[in-house]
Amino acid sequence: MLNELCLPVGMSHNDVIKLDELIKERIRLSKGSALFHLGDHAEAIYAIRSGSIKTQLEDATGQVQITGFLLPGELIGMDGLLNYEQTSHAIALEDSEVCVMRLEDMDRLSMHMPSLQQQFRRLMSKEINRSHRLVMSLGSLRSEQRLAAFLLNLSHRLSALGYSSTDFILRMSREEIGNYLGLTLETVSRLFSRFAREGLIRIQQREIKLLDYQALQALSGSDCGD
Amino acid sequence: MLNELCLPVGMSHNDVIKLDELIKERIRLSKGSALFHLGDHAEAIYAIRSGSIKTQLEDATGQVQITGFLLPGELIGMDGLLNYEQTSHAIALEDSEVCVMRLEDMDRLSMHMPSLQQQFRRLMSKEINRSHRLVMSLGSLRSEQRLAAFLLNLSHRLSALGYSSTDFILRMSREEIGNYLGLTLETVSRLFSRFAREGLIRIQQREIKLLDYQALQALSGSDCGD
DNA sequence: CGCATCGTTGACATAACTCAACGGCTGTGG
DNA sequence: CCACAGCCGTTGAGTTATGTCAACGATGCG
């Protein structure tokens, strides 16, 4: 059952071994299906083993806001721990697999392993930082800067997983990118076209190639996030 | 040294007693001074005892994004736990006092008290949710909705502290409100004027009175957050 | 192979920004 | 305690980035 792909990128091997003890179950998700919905009882957090998953809030009026596109090694469900009730939906962007880490197992294990809870505290802090950077992007950047930063951020994370940092597939639609970045799908589409015209990227449907990394960094404000 | 005002609102009395053991030190901050700066070593988190504090990110270009206005009972510094280095600035909006909770004390105590770490996990989850709601506000709402939601959120939190939910003082400038909401100070000023003209609020400088709570809720999309 | 979804592009509308001028607090130092 | 300076807030006029509506083309799923 143990598998390094379940583990948050950047963990020491020591911590990996501890976390592996937590993972007793995996869940397969087909494209478009939900790992959990808003309101579900939250009794575990999930590490993506393969695939990709979006998380989205939904308010009383049905308005949706995507808060993240998660890749292998990243964790989902930490926003549900406040009242052990999910506050967002988690939906697979492609066929995916996640590892389940039950809270009760975590609590039991961390009693004897202080480093586990410290590690988990760091991961929750990371999630807070991720969200804060998104706030900064939405609050302070113009559309072209947001999209450039988004592409660089994806590139960075895929690269850390051993994939190409310049050639990858966007697993989400223009509408989903727009929702995430606080833009309309038309604006996203136009920006992709413009970036391509200006030689920054090449794009064909969801296949993207970053041609001028530096120019994208300059555009985004050199803040590629993580 | 023990004081209930240091404690996150909504905690059980039992947990309060535990947390009180953590608080060995308090810090007084005069208006405009910083509790910590970006890059500072993070070895504690802080609970506001009195006053109010803003937290803000700052990117390489000096661009600032305010991510929160914190009130008594609320916690600061959870975003710095990733690498034990602050990722934001925390600046007092008025003369304030905070309680210091050292990480090493927390780790020591929580070893014998599983409920402490569970409690802390919940508080970090709450911070993630807070940030997610801000993302939703910035990504999905129009300016008038953002400001209405902001006022209702403040009202809600002040009310939980025992203050009036309809009459209060804005401790932050128009510019700070605008920065937080992804708007310019002029837009904020115009919206206040318009809300007043329409009978939703009365405002004189930083003194505000909410006259039509329901209309504000309808405007904001009934999402007053927390 | 056909239909539904997704993506592109254009024309137009508008919410929010920018720049500018001015008035009123507030707090400080003489 | 008063006068002044600097900041803060308001308001207006004009601009612009981004949204809206609409038509069409491309993909890929069933």
UniProtKB/TrEMBL annotation, chains A, B:
Segments forming domain Cyclic nucleotide-binding = 7-104
Per the UniProt entry, what species is this protein from, by scientific name?
A: Paracandidimonas soli
Q: Which GO MF terms does the UniProt record name?
A: DNA binding; DNA-binding transcription factor activity
* GO CC terms: cytosol
Which keywords label this protein? DNA-binding, Transcription, Transcription regulation
- Which Pfam families does the protein's record reference? cNMP_binding, HTH_Crp_2
- Start and end of every HTH crp-type domain? 141-214
The residues forming a coiled coil are none
Q: Please give the name of this protein.
A: CRP/FNR family transcriptional regulator
Q: Matching CDD domains, A to Z?
A: CAP_ED, HTH_CRP
